[in-house]
Amino acid sequence: MTDRNDIDPVEPVLLSALLTPHRSLSRSGFILLMCAFGFVSFVAGIAFLVIGAWPVLGFFGLDVLILYLAFRINFRRAAAYEEIQVTPTTLHIRRVSHRGRQMEWTLNPLWVQLETVEHEEYGTERLYLASRGNRISIGRFLGPDEKASFAKVLSAALSAANRGPALNPVT
Fold first, then answer.
1. Going from the N-terminus, what domains does the chain have, and what CATH number goes with each?
2. Mean pLDDT score of the chain, rounded to an integer?
3. What is the rounded distance in angstroms from the CA atom of residue 124 to the CA atom of residue 136?
4. Which of 6, 55, 95, 143 is most buried, by the most CB atoms less than 10 A from its CB?
5. How far is the C-alpha of 100 from the C-alpha of 95, rounded, in Å?
């Protein structure tokens, strides 16, 4: 016989959120855009080549290359995400950058306060989790409406954690 209980109670998950940056252009849309932009640039460049302004063709090609690189950087940054999980006893935050670098925090939800920075024209600008003098910025890549919506959900989960677990006695 052992001293510990063989049945470990499973903590209920009050909130489990995966926050990712919004990208409105899909991969197929990117390919279509680059083909259209490349075609227009090529036709315009050939027109300038015909009238004798041959250096312009190179600049049109450079425009296509710069646009391609900008979108590649944008798609690479879309790989970043944040995971936030709230249980009655823990608040776990895991942030993964687009380069794969991970940062993790585990906080007691009883000691955490959700702070918002509001702008009168734009809405919610920043979300912070404050605990014992430390502030962690969350949802930096979300839009103002998404931040406000997530703040409501997270605030409700933190309130539920502060109330404690609901006990359902077995009879």
1. 15-22+80-163 (2.30.29), 27-77 (no CATH)
2. 87
3. 16
4. 95
5. 9
